[in-house]
Specification:
This protein has 277 residues and is mostly beta strands. 4% of the residues lie in helices and 50% in strands.
């Protein structure tokens, strides 16, 4: 089953990007991202066909990280290109993120930024000559989730290492949709990476919205992203050189109801300081 890729404010278009591989040094721990660049392949799950590619780079800043990604995909009746520039603080929380896409020739820009207090996200969307704005609470462990964006999946892998009790996703559609996410550890998997056997951690991230979806994240104990599967959307995002053995049989849909309202936002004492430009 092919689901539409979510990115557009205009119609439910999935921000689909293909695959990205994080090469370079792997110095990641639960609270740190690996510095370097990567390439992935975007694969249609039902037929194994490669339909696009993408790239991502992570650089260290004095107070956090800069995560930049770009990609393209082409289907028979769907084309997509994007760039995503994401600045994170030292806690891996979003400071600002600009997502620019061209979907079937139509440009769309999605801007997400923290205000000066660190408590609120401001959203601005430009599409078809119209600007739409929005704002909502800024939470810890929030990821901007363009579909099939390995930069987002890398951040999710690092949150998964910390076993978060509560996490959140910003879906870049309409005027920006904030939804809870539930990280569920799964049985470890195995694979081959550049010809060598490798043990792989697996977490199901259940994104709760009106039509809940799951993102199946496969990653190393150091937080390197190896693969992300999207059962409801019929795509795999696979790192170059990696082969997953005995992929589980997914049973979508797997989205869940929102968690209770406690732990929303930062406790006042936990507001991170905003890094200076």
């Amino acid at each position: 089953m092919r689901s539409t890729v979510v990115f557009s404010v205009v119609a439910a278009i999935v921000l689909t990007i293909s695959a990205l591989t994080f090469g370079g040094q792997s110095t990641a721990q639960a609270g740190a991202l690996p510095i370097g660049s990567a390439q992935f392949r975007l694969i249609e799950a039902d037929n194994g066909k490669s339909v696009g590619s993408a790239a991502c780079s992570v650089t260290s800043l004095p107070n956090g990280y800069q995560v930049d990604s770009s990609g393209q995909m082409q289907l028979a009746e769907f084309s997509y290109r994007f760039t995503n520039n994401n600045r994170l603080d030292q806690y891996l929380d979003i400071v600002s993120d600009q997502l620019i896409g061209t979907v079937n020739g139509e440009p769309v820009t999605f801007n997400l930024s923290s205000d000066s207090t660190g408590r609120t996200f401001n959203v601005s969307i430009d599409a078809k000559g119209k600007t739409t704005t929005n704002s909502f609470d800024r939470h810890q462990r929030t990821t901007l989730l363009p579909d099939l964006d390995p930069a987002a999946y890398l951040e999710m892998a690092h949150f998964a290492l910390a076993h978060p009790p509560t996490a959140w996703m910003v879906i870049p559609k309409q005027n920006g949709v904030l939804v809870p996410a539930n990280y569920q550890p799964e049985a470890a998997a195995s694979g081959i990476f550049h010809g060598q056997p490798i043990s792989v951690l697996h977490t199901s991230v259940l994104v709760s919205s009106e039509n809940g979806i799951s993102v199946e994240i496969y990653y190393t104990s150091q937080g390197e992203l190896l693969e992300a599967d999207l059962p409801e959307q019929n795509f795999y995002v696979i790192r170059d050189g990696f082969v997953l053995k005995n992929r589980p049989h997914y049973k979508p849909p797997r989205g869940t109801a929102p968690p209770p309202p406690q732990q929303q936002g930062y406790p006042q004492s936990d507001y991170p300081q905003q890094p200076q430009p």
